[in-house]
Amino acid sequence: MKTMIRVLLVTMLAGSVATAKAAPSNDINMINTKFQHLFVFKAKRKYLGATVEVYYSNGDLITSEKLGKRRMIIDFCDTKLGEYTIRVVKDDKRKEFSYIKK
After folding, report:
1. How far apart are CA 9 and CA 94, in angstroms?
2. pLDDT of residue 9
3. Rounded to 10 degrees, what is the CA torsion of 26, 56, 75, 90?
4. What pTM does this model have?
5. How far is CA 96 from CA 4, 8, 93, in A?
6. Alpha helices in 1-102 (DSSP H)
7. Cβ of 23: how many Cβ atoms within 10 Å?
8. Are strands 71-75 and 38-43 parallel, antiparallel or unpaired?
9. CATH of 25-101, one of 2.60.40.3080, 1.10.10.10, 3.40.50.920, 3.90.1070.10
10. Could you give the C-alpha distances from 68 to 75, 96, 99, in angstroms and in order?
11. First vs last Cα of the chain: how many Å apart?
12. Average pLDDT per consecutive 10 residues, the chain (102 residues; last block may be shorter)
């Protein structure tokens, strides 16, 4: 009986470790809001000081700003309709998001 309990515990422990390693680690998470013209994201601490760039679909740089806090809100209220690319760059790490204003 004790052997069966040990085997069961080892199996559960191995399964939980495998599940923990398989979980994706998102460095930057988008946050859903009720306002359609806002793009909100929250980054991990290692992205503090990163450069956040917003590009229009034709490649024009709209704005560029340093990430001072972990959460950033980008307001697309006064921009023209179209597709935008939000790029967060820190050292060799680079994350891109797409935003479509309708």
Report:
1. 40
2. 55
3. 40
4. 0.71
5. 49, 43, 10
6. 2-22
7. 7
8. antiparallel
9. 2.60.40.3080
10. 17, 18, 22
11. 65
12. 61 54 67 90 94 96 95 94 96 93 90
Round to whole Å and give the CA distance between 92 and 51.
12
Q: In angstroms, rounded to a whole number, what is the distance separating the alpha carbons of residues 38 and 78?
A: 11
Amino acid residing at 56: Y
Q: Kindly report the length of the chain.
A: 102
Query: Are 41 and 28 a contacting pair, CB within 8 Å?
Result: yes
Any idea of the CA torsion for 65, 46, 17, 22, to the nearest 10 degrees?
30
CA–centroid distance for 50 within its chain: 13
